[in-house]
Amino acid sequence: MPPTPTPDTNIYTPRQQYVLLIVCLVGISTLILIGLGSYITAFLGAGILFVVFRPWFVGLVHRRGWSRQLVAVGLLVFAFVVIILPFMALSLMLVDRIRFYGQDTSQIMAVLHKIEQKTGYTFTNEQSVRTLLQQAVSWLSQRLPSLASGLLHFTVIIGLMLFTLYFMFIQEASFLRGLRRYLPFRPSTLHELGDSLKNNVNANVLGQALIALVQAILTGVTLRIFGVPDSTFWGVVAFFMAFIPVLGTPLVWGPAAIIKLAQNQTTQGVGILLVGVIVIMNIDNLLRILLARRIGDIHPLITLAGVVLGVNIFGILGLVLGPLLLSYFIVLIKVFERENRIRQRLRSGKPEQDLLPPASG
């Protein structure tokens, strides 16, 4: 006869307690993520910067014995001055100029009317152009973190990101140990995920940023040489467009060439096309070859689909996080396949180690 439960006996079985514990953890985690809202980008940005600057931190702190606090503060100052401030300036310049064109569409309409005269088709009007530009401003305001909800919101995001990054460096050992302890993966899987993270950050932050900068400079200089107004502004636009695979900078110098041709400036239009096709487009392939050993090897399809996915979810950080999500998905699919093969081998009495990948450094 089972013992009669006393009033203070827990009514749940051990298995029920275990399931309810998981439910509570998931529920609380969901509430935390919902409460943080748009501030999630600060933690994601800190993680990306940690991967970018960690080789410097390891070299200065672990190899040369410099002060951990001093190096962490120096890296934070470097990130703010070299990365955050220029990016904020470029974002503000881009959106402000689009707002200007959205309020004064006379220049754009003059060009469109000339194209309509050349082609014989009427395909737009001033109201539709104004609406399109206003939608572009709204879209950019949602995607660029520096313009999300004003100066206070931006300041809080940057402060939270730098604060998080500082403690990730100061408590580096416990942070990495916590990842290894609490992530539900084998050590070999953690190595694969770590390699995927490095490859994506190298390819979509370091390598692509350098390529985008070179293409933007070449685009701005080309447009200035051939007499395109606001060449500096369009160079900034080219920097952002260069992150989009396949399309990229042709979205900038292509319309500029068409406009020049529509204005009967054949020499300038053909010149822009020749420089764009021969130089600007091929500089991407040339730099990727030169940087192939240092940037991650990410398939262009993963980058393209990841950018489309990531920007809609994470804003401008989606340029990195989108391809990373797809790469992680592919890695986990491979892990799932390998785990199933391991289970089958174990059932047949064969050793598990035969199917585990070699651990990377």
In a nutshell, what does this entry contain?
The chain is mainly alpha-helical.
Helix content: over 70%
In terms of per-residue confidence, which ranges show pLDDT below 50 for 5 or more consecutive residues?
none
Mean residue pLDDT: 77
Q: What number of domains? A: 2
Strand content: under 5%
The count of helical stretches stands at 13
Our Rg estimate from Cα atoms comes to 26 Å
What is the 3D shape?
elongated
Written account of the structure:
With 361 residues, this protein is mainly alpha-helical. It has 2 domains: 21-127 and 147-182, no CATH class; 188-344. The protein contains 13 helices and no strands. Helix 10 packs antiparallel against helix 11. It is elongated. It is a multi-pass membrane protein. Belongs to the autoinducer-2 exporter (AI-2E) (TC 2.A.86) family.
Which structural traits does this protein have?
361 residues, 2 domains, mainly alpha, 13 helices
List the helices and strands and how they pair.
Elements: H1 14-36, H2 40-63, H3 68-103, H4 106-119, H5 126-143, H6 150-170, H7 172-182, H8 187-225, H9 231-241, H10 250-262, H11 266-290, H12 300-314, H13 318-347
Helix pairs in contact: 2-3, 2-6, 3-5, 3-6, 8-9, 8-11, 8-13, 9-10, 10-11, 12-13
